[in-house]
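As a warm-up, study this chain.
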Amino acid sequence: MDLLILLLALGLADGGSALSSPNSLLTCACENFNCKGSSTCQGSWCTVWLVKEPGGQPRETRGCSNHHHHETCLGLPTEAFAQYCCYQPLCNLNISLKLATPPEEPHQTNHLPLILGPGLALLVLLGLGALALWRLSRRREKQRALHSDLGESSLILKASELGDSTLGDLLDSDCTTGSGSGLPFLVQRTVARQIALVECVGKGRYGEVWRGLWHGESVAVKIFSSRDEQSWFRETEIYNTVLLRHDNVLGFIASDMTSRNSSTQLWLITHYHEHGSLYDFLQRQPLDRGLALRLAHSIACGLAHLHVEIFGTQGKPAIAHRDLKSRNVLVKSNLQCCIADLGLAVMHSQGSDSLDIGNNPRVGTKRYMAPEVLDEQVRTDCFESYKWTDIWAFGLVLWEIARRTIVNGIVEDYRPPFFDMVPNDPSFEEMKKVVCVDQQTPNIPNRLAADPFLSGLAQTMRECWYPNPSARLTALRIKKTLQKLCANLEKPKGIH
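Now compare it with the structure written out below.
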């Protein structure tokens, strides 16, 4: 029966999911717990399921499936499960299924001595099976009681991969997919329905970020507003199709479209970092030289990992962020940073020479836009162009860090880049005048020049801000430069 539940969940879990390919979707009749009150859904094909649970009557449901689980259409009906798949709009509307007829009982014979031994073995196996089913039932009842407010179906996908593991165990184990950086797709759906939202920790134009609890561990739940669905879809797409696991890129756990308070919510579930964004951290915390270099170097490591293409079956395409800023960098408990918010990211693979820019109408943050973006001269068909705009923005983030660094007991209050040249919410034209027409860059504090380590940081900034995009440093060169500055800072005095 567990196998039948799993087969059914494979089909139901994708009914109407926004994770399906948006191309060539069929409209199908929808009659299951995942229809969210609608009589139709969209998928790669239409399906009908007939399931008979022990002691119950057969129950027929209809919905959609996608290319992830085509194997569920294969096989003949059994006494407890049957499925039908079709490939025309509403082709599953008037289909009725039948279960396989159980075989007739054989005539009684007088061979009791011959079957007594196997019969005892069968009784033992049945007893063990009944015990296993009872324990599984108890676990499911606990899950239902704990998460009944999330509207889970009585047909719960058995996520045996989860067990009693912690979140860290899960993400470090072989449960992670070969292509994506989070949990397997179906397990993502299970995890999302087991999270309790605790407190709202941030708001922005995209929606809200909440701290949630999953099995006693904190996770971050980014809830997108309906108008920013493309950002949610893009982040989900990138995290689920490329190998992004890296210490300095925000750890992805799961993505789901869920229903709460009679409305659909788009969730992105990631690791939780209590220090919040670098933007928030810098306003609270002045930095010593060591911490400043540590923060800067860790961001460079994350950006270099995004920018590089890794070849092979376990590789990843090159990725440009396109909205790098201090609000999109998080500070971890070990005081290293990780890069977040991939809703505008662009991907490129040399093998196919394909440039995937997504389908998001949102633009980046005007204050951090490179001059070639502001004067609309950026080559949108060239992937290197997007990497160069990331480097410009990275230089501005370095400036924010340097301004908050203590030198000879002096430190300045936090300010955003160009704070003294444009208003709080600058327009595109205001930024264009300052950056393109006047060719201004933020003023680098003179006190940095007197420090051998921070002067290196200042020089790196300048080389990120060259007007000629191709003359700017690469993320890998920045990473190596900052790594050397960190190493020299940690050396005892007198050792060179």
